[in-house]
Amino acid sequence: MLIETLPAVFQMDEILYHLRDHIVGLNCGRWDYIFSYIKTLKNHADRVLPDRQSVTMDKPFLSAYSRLLIKTCHRRGAFAMGGMAAFIPSKDAEKNAWVLDKVQADKQLEADNGHDGTWVAHPGLADTVMAVFDQVLGQRHNQLEVLREQDTPITAAQLLEPCEGERTEAGMRANIRVAVQYIEAWISGNGCVPIYGLMEDAATAEISRTSIWQWIHHEKSLSDGQLVTKALFRQMLNEEMQVIRKEVGEARFNAGRFEEAARLMERITTQDELIDFLTLPGYELLA
After folding, report:
1. 3-state SS assignment for residue 86
2. CA angle 234, 238, 241 (to 5 degrees)
3. I need a labelling partner for 82 at 20 to 30 A (CA). Which of 28, 61, 121, 157 fits?
4. pLDDT tens digits, residue range 50-81?
5. How many CA atoms within 13 Å lie on the side-chain side of 275?
6. Taking 90 as the threshold, does the pLDDT of residue 4 lie above it?
7. 222 SS3 class
């Protein structure tokens, strides 16, 4: 079972107990979990996240989530699975080496923490990830004996700890392009889309659009001093639509539903109340 909401991380013992006759383990559903962190703490100005790219599993609040899941599962004899590596291998050798290094470091952290296994978005990453777990596990089939009993108890404060990092113009613009392209694919019937070397699903698109909503709602500034407002977002949205048009090509842009996606993105990002899921208004536009 995926632990992919902030409230669920406080109920892992109860979940394992009630599903004890059926469950084999819990999984760190990291992308939905980050989205849930934003949504659950949306009214707390001190819990606003930085650029999406900065929110990695070595951040204290995510490290606490991973370690608590391992400790809870292994105490009850259940497997603790690591989170999704969303990278996609590249045909460019230099870029692919960078991707594999990123994935290797991410999975090394999971294996060292005590996870029993993990998952990836693309089979081309499997050998790299398997090598990491083979090296850590050796002849063992799992790490159920890693009970983390010597750890200082993980507190609610650690699970809710603010995440350090910058909010940048480049990060905001990237969020806009990713969210618009994902929404365009989703309303056209495709829910899992490769964008900029990552396999995007609804959770990662949700992070992109709710991050901007958060920045607007709490009147945060970017690293260059620009105040994030609805007007700034709308300006960037218009500019990034031209970037998308250039990237995908005129024919693909005109044949697609990018303008509809942009209108939905504008609507859900500038409303005063955070819409729970982009898919809810998205259903109205399904092809």
Report:
1. coil
2. 135
3. 157
4. 999 999 999 999 999 999 999 999 999 999 99
5. 17
6. yes
7. coil
Residue 57 tokens read as 């599993």
Query: Is the distance from CB of 143 to CB of 115 less than 8 angstroms?
Result: yes
Give SS3 for 131.
helix
Tokens of 19: 């599903």
The pLDDT of residue 24: 98
Buried b (16+ CB within 10 A) or exposed e, 111-141: bebbbbbbebbbebbeebbeebbeebeeeee
Domains, the chain, in order of start with CATH, read 2-160 (3.20.20.360), 169-284 (1.20.1220.12)
**The pair of three-digit structure tokens given for residue 282, joined into one six-digit string:** 């998205």
Q: Which residues have C-beta within 8 Å of that of residue 238, sequence separation ≥ 6?
A: none
d(CA 186, CA 19): 33
**Quick check: 159 and 10 in contact, CB under 8 A?**
yes
Q: Flag whether pLDDT at 44 surpasses 70.
A: yes
Q: If you search the block for the tokens 């991410």, which residue do you land on?
A: 106
Residue type at position 169:
E
Taking the whole predicted model, whether its pTM rises above 0.90 is answered as yes
Whether the Cβ atoms of residue 4 and residue 32 lie closer than 8 Å to each other: yes
